[in-house]
UniProtKB/TrEMBL annotation:
It comes from Myotis myotis (Greater mouse-eared bat). Residues 1-22 form the signal peptide. InterPro entries: Alkaline_phosphatase_core_sf, Phosphodiest/P_Trfase. Keywords: Glycoprotein, Hydrolase, Membrane, Metal-binding, Signal, Transmembrane, Transmembrane helix, Zinc. GO terms for molecular function: hydrolase activity; metal ion binding. Its main location: membrane. It is a single-pass membrane protein. This is Ectonucleotide pyrophosphatase/phosphodiesterase family member 5. One of its GO terms (cellular component) is membrane. It is found in: Membrane. Its cofactor is Zn(2+). It comes from the Eukaryota.
């Protein structure tokens, strides 16, 4: 989740699979699983028998459209709130809120300030307010106090904790004397390795096989615990990934004096906070700097991205074309990532659907 080495990036897409059985309303149980950065076509790169098993007996949506911007935290919060980033307030993995005068940073795991999360109410809280209980195994935000609450059961985020341990907790909570009806399970790969290797690398094959084995393990454990036939399982991801290259880097230092602004978030959507009195200078310097970077004043951000109306969106954003990477200075080392930006697809979930919004997934969980 946090590791960003070589060149990898996000594109729209990810997958969703779901198995639904007809249950009495009072028996409804949901387990929502996210494999970070699982691009939709990974399913077909190598044999993925466990995914195909679920697809065969469930419902498969070929592509899930992420919100703008396609980062881990914004999209995971969308999945559990049904809201765009401008509405739920987690507008990036790295943020600055000028009113709170506080920063949020995934890179330093400085994400525990409740105020960043409280523009929305995540589903575990809604579930608990309705008298039910929830359990979360490292889903982003689930170990943060939000509106004075935590999930009924949760694990403190620790990326070293194995998938098997996370599954064990989920099973324990679903089978306890007071069972949860909502489980949330998160795993950092294939995102971590995708950043490391690049999504198009042949070395991603074994990584995808490993995820498929992890899904197999989850299925096996659910069957063993007699949960397989009594819960709704949704498997999805937050974003896809695209390959980038050292040939496609946009270095802000070439155009702009770094004394004139703060770079709050980097790529593929650079969030730029000009220093006092420097807005025009910064904007003019960047506006036509590079053909593969589109620069927007905040008020010019296209409405369709639903990314404008939040104080945490900085006065200027610069958006790289797909496959391009924005950084301040190449000496920082290239950490190439990319997210596809525009989504025009939406649909509700039924067997024929190929593409759906991740916002709509919330309705399923709900
Ligand atoms: C914002 O916080 C910083 C310290 O993090 C402080 O130096 C600065 O004065 C604060 N600004 C305002 C306007 O309160
Ligand atoms: C994180 O998990 C690993 C593996 O279980 C453990 O060794 C380590 O102590 C944990 N770290 C923290 C901060 O709890
Ligand atoms: C990048 O940073 C290095 C070291 O600070 C500096 O020497 C170089 O001029 C910078 N690159 C540009 C294009 O400004
Ligand atoms: C990058 O910019 C060039 C020149 O405008 C354009 O031809 C090319 O399509 C752009 N690349 C992408 C990936 O959009």
């Amino acid at each position: 989740m946090t590791s960003k080495l070589l060149c990898a990036a996000f594109i729209l897409a990810a997958l969703t699979l779901s198995i639904t059985f007809s249950l009495q309303p009072d028996q409804q149980k949901v387990l929502l699983v996210s494999f970070d950065g699982f691009r939709w076509d990974y399913l077909y790169r190598v044999p993925t028998p466990h995914f195909h098993y679920v697809m065969k007996y469930g419902v498969h949506v070929k592509q899930v459209t992420n919100i703008f911007i396609t980062k881990t935290y914004p999209n995971h919060y969308t999945l559990v709130t049904g809201l765009f980033a401008e509405n739920h307030g987690i507008v990036a993995n790295d943020m600055f809120d000028p009113i709170l005068n506080k920063s949020f940073s995934l890179d330093t795991m400085n994400i525990y300030d409740s105020e960043f999360w409280e523009e929305a109410t995540p589903i575990w809280i809604t579930n608990q307010k309705a008298g039910h209980t929830s359990g979360a195994a490292m889903w982003p935000g689930t170990d943060v106090k939000i509106h004075e609450s935590f999930p009924t059961h949760y694990m403190l985020y620790n990326e070293s904790v194995s998938f098997e341990e996370r599954v064990a907790k989920i099973i324990e909570w679903f089978t306890s004397k007071e069972p949860i009806n909502l489980g949330l399970l998160y795993w950092e790969d294939p995102d971590d390795m995708g950043h490391h290797l690049g999504p198009d690398s042949p070395l991603m094959g074994p990584v995808i096989s490993d995820i498929d084995n992890k899904l197999g393990y989850l299925i096996q454990m659910l069957k063993k615990a007699n949960l397989w036939n009594t819960l709704n399982l949704i498997i999805t991801s937050d974003h896809g990934m695209t390959q980038c290259s050292e040939e496609r880097v946009i270095e802000l230092d070439q155009y702009l004096d770094k004394e004139h602004y703060l770079l709050i978030d980097q790529s593929p959507v650079a969030a730029i906070l000009p220093k006092e009195g420097k807005f025009d200078e910064v904007y003019e310097a960047l506006a036509h700097a590079h053909p593969n970077m589109t620069v927007y004043k905040k008020e010019e951000i296209p409405e369709r991205w639903h990314y404008k109306y939040n104080t945490r969106v900085q006065p200027i954003i610069a958006v790289a074309d797909e496959g391009w990477y924005i950084l301040q200075n190449k000496s920082e080392g290239l950490m190439c990532e990319y997210v596809t930006i525009i989504s025009s697809h939406s649909a509700s979930l039924c067997a024929k659907v190929d593409v759906m919004d991740n916002k709509a997934l919330y309705l399923l969980v709900e």
